[in-house]
Amino acid sequence: MKDLRAEDSAWYWCGVEIGGIWTADDTASVHISVVHGVSVVNQMVTGEEGSSVSVQCFYSDGHRTSVKKWCRSADWNTCVTLGVNGTMKEDSVVISDDHNRAFTVTLLHLGKKDTGWYRCAAGHQHATVHIEVVPRSLTELTP
User: Fold this and answer.
1) Boundaries of domain holding 113
2) Cβ pair 130, 117 in contact under 8 A
3) Backbone φ, ψ for residue 113 (5° rounding)
4) Is residue 77 domain-resident?
5) Residue 18 located in a structural domain
6) Is 3 within a domain?
7) Which one, of 89, 37, 31, lies nearest residue 60 by Cα?
8) What is the tally of structural domains in the chain?
9) pLDDT tens track for 43-93
10) In this structure, is the dihedral angle defined by the CA atoms of residues 132, 104, 85 and 60, taken in order, positive or negative?
11) Which residue of 18, 37, 45, 102 lies most exposed, with the fewest beta carbons within 10 A?
């Protein structure tokens, strides 16, 4: 499902036809609630030391003009805030907003100290992401 709107909130059915007319089909129902908010595709991201990782944060239409932030863990004092021009670079963090319901955060020059939980936020909504930094692979270290 793509481009969901609040009016798409409802019960949906999914089914698989197993056999013929005398065989019961497998079905399941799920309730989808579409709310204004922020989400990420991957909540667990891994990158090698010295490399970069990017996290795409999606936001609903209601947050197009909201302030976008990238924060370390639950400490809102560590947030890097995106300016109105749609792009921001600070030390080893780059944030860019496409103004089409997604902004991308790139962490540059990863070190072990970057391992941990982060939040991408739009307005008062946020999604959590865990970044794990692993040692560079041995094949890359060998000349």
Assistant:
1) 38-137
2) yes
3) -65, -15
4) yes
5) no
6) no
7) 37
8) 1
9) 999 999 999 999 999 998 888 888 899 999 877 788 888 876 778 888 899
10) negative
11) 18
